[in-house]
């Protein structure tokens, strides 16, 4: 049995830990052979396939990024996608694929699976927005990085008695903003799921100054004012139709300055949240996902996604995750409102 592995979409800490555990268990327990498809679905379209063995995965457990490369290629935006992917797999005698990705990459996997490609999915993303799994790996690392940044911003904000706005990733979902904001003791947390009232934000900011503390406002990049729209970095779309976000932090700081007459600054954390070594939790989760994904291949249980449910790893139909983003529950957000202002 020969198994192909690919990593698609935005990278995240823990991808290498999955690759390592898939290859280690697959070779040691099941006698499988492995190859890697380079740069996500691009490698599947272009036949860019590299050997993958135990020596190629040695030492990669703590390394961020992905040794296989990644891209946001959507094969269905290219001609003859299904045939080209099937041809690549046939040319390299690949019997099954392990696809490690977020909602876009997994959506492609679900489609290909329905068209007869043998594959198993593994959910990843720092955004934690893949439905069907309690957590994705990469998220814990990103939250840790954002929390440390907020801790640091508190002290400089207080020295100057000014507002510090922290913009974190999260296009459709506010998981990073909420977890890091709560862990870092933010005074305002803004998430895409809950359009915000700028007057209310400014009231919270003023309140904070009144008790001689400097406000920290954490905003997900996809947060939107009630009257207004998402702020885009530019209008170019990727192959999955996503625009590039960023700008809400800067907009908030300007509005806060104008409306409250106090000083405000912005820090955009950006890709720092996606880079570098994975946390212990992400290594643990990624390793378990890898072990269970290779078991699913061994069982011939294709068209499935491995997922964390409580402390157990389960298999769910890949199809179920398609086009559904796991959003922050409004009641969870409401739990923390007591800390705002
Ligand atoms: O999909 C994960 C994510 O981190 C989003 O939160 C963010 O909008 C996006 O990636 C940015 O990705 P890239 O820099 O690859 O376009």
From TrEMBL:
Molecular function in Gene Ontology: 6-phosphofructokinase activity; AMP binding; ATP binding; diphosphate-fructose-6-phosphate 1-phosphotransferase activity; fructose-6-phosphate binding; identical protein binding; metal ion binding; monosaccharide binding
GO biological processes: canonical glycolysis; fructose 1,6-bisphosphate metabolic process; fructose 6-phosphate metabolic process
Cited SUPFAM superfamilies: Phosphofructokinase
Major enzyme class: transferase
Residues involved in Mg(2+) binding: 103
Cofactor: Mg(2+)
Entry-linked Gene3D superfamilies: 3.40.50.450, Phosphofructokinase domain
Entry binding sites for substrate: 125-127, 162, 169-171, 221, 265, 271-274
Record site feature (Important for catalytic activity), residues: 124
CC terms in the record's Gene Ontology section: 6-phosphofructokinase complex
Reactions catalysed: beta-D-fructose 6-phosphate + diphosphate = beta-D-fructose 1,6-bisphosphate + phosphate + H(+)
Key words, A-Z: Cytoplasm, Glycolysis, Kinase, Magnesium, Metal-binding, Transferase
Residues that, per the record, bind diphosphate: 10
Biochemical pathway: Carbohydrate degradation; glycolysis; D-glyceraldehyde 3-phosphate and glycerone phosphate from D-glucose: step 3/4
UniProt xrefs under InterPro entries: ATP_PFK, ATP_PFK_prok-type, Phosphofructokinase_CS, Phosphofructokinase_dom, Phosphofructokinase_III, PKF_sf
Superkingdom assignment: Bacteria
Pfam families registered for this protein in UniProt: PFK
Regulation of this protein's activity per its record: Non-allosteric.
PROSITE patterns, per database record: PHOSPHOFRUCTOKINASE
Enzyme Commission code: 2.7.1.90
PANTHER family tied to this protein: ATP-DEPENDENT 6-PHOSPHOFRUCTOKINASE 3 (PTHR13697:SF52), PHOSPHOFRUCTOKINASE (PTHR13697)
Role description: Catalyzes the phosphorylation of D-fructose 6-phosphate, the first committing step of glycolysis. Uses inorganic phosphate (PPi) as phosphoryl donor instead of ATP like common ATP-dependent phosphofructokinases (ATP-PFKs), which renders the reaction reversible, and can thus function both in glycolysis and gluconeogenesis. Consistently, PPi-PFK can replace the enzymes of both the forward (ATP-PFK) and reverse (fructose-bisphosphatase (FBPase)) reactions.
HAMAP family assigned: Phosphofructokinase_III
Family, similarity comment: Belongs to the phosphofructokinase type A (PFKA) family. Mixed-substrate PFK group III subfamily.
Name this polypeptide is given: Pyrophosphate--fructose 6-phosphate 1-phosphotransferase
Organism name: Streptomyces caeruleatus
């Amino acid at each position: 049995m020969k198994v192909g592995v690919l990593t698609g979409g935005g990278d995240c800490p823990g991808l290498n830990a999955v690759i390592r555990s898939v290859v280690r268990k697959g070779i040691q327990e099941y006698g499988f052979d492995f190859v890697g498809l380079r740069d996500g679905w691009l490698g599947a379209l272009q036949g860019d396939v590299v050997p993958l063995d135990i020596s190629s995965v040695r030492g990669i457990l703590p390394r961020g990024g992905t040794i296989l490369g990644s891209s946001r290629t959507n094969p269905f935006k290219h001609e003859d996608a299904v045939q080209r992917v099937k041809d690549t797999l046939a040319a390299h005698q690949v019997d099954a694929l392990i696809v490690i990705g977020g909602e876009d990459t997994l959506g492609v996997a679900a489609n290909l699976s329905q068209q007869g490609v043998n594959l198993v999915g593994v959910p990843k993303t720092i955004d934690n927005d893949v439905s069907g799994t309690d957590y994705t790996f990469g998220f814990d690392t990103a939250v840790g990085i954002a929390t440390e940044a907020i801790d640091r911003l508190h002290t400089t904000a207080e020295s100057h008695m000014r507002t510090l706005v922290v913009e974190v990733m999260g296009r459709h979902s506010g998981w990073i903003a909420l977890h890091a904001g709560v862990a870092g003791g933010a005074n305002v947390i803004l998430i895409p799921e809950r359009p915000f009232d700028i007057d209310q934000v400014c009231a919270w900011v003023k309140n904070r100054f009144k008790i001689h503390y400097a406000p920290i406002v954490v905003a997900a990049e996809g947060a939107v004012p009630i009257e207004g729209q998402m702020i885009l970095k530019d209008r170019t779309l990727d192959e999955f139709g996503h625009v590039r976000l960023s700008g809400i932090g800067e907009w908030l700081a300007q509005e806060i300055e104008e409306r409250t007459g106090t000083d405000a600054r912005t820090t955009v954390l950006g890709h720092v949240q996606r880079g570098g070594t994975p946390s212990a939790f992400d290594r643990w989760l990624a390793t378990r996902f890898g072990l269970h994904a290779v078991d699913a291949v061994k069982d011939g249980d294709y068209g499935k996604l491995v997922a964390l449910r409580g402390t157990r790893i389960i298999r769910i139909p890949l199809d179920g995750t398609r086009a559904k983003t796991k959003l922050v529950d409004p009641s969870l957000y409401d739990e923390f409102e007591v800390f705002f202002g």
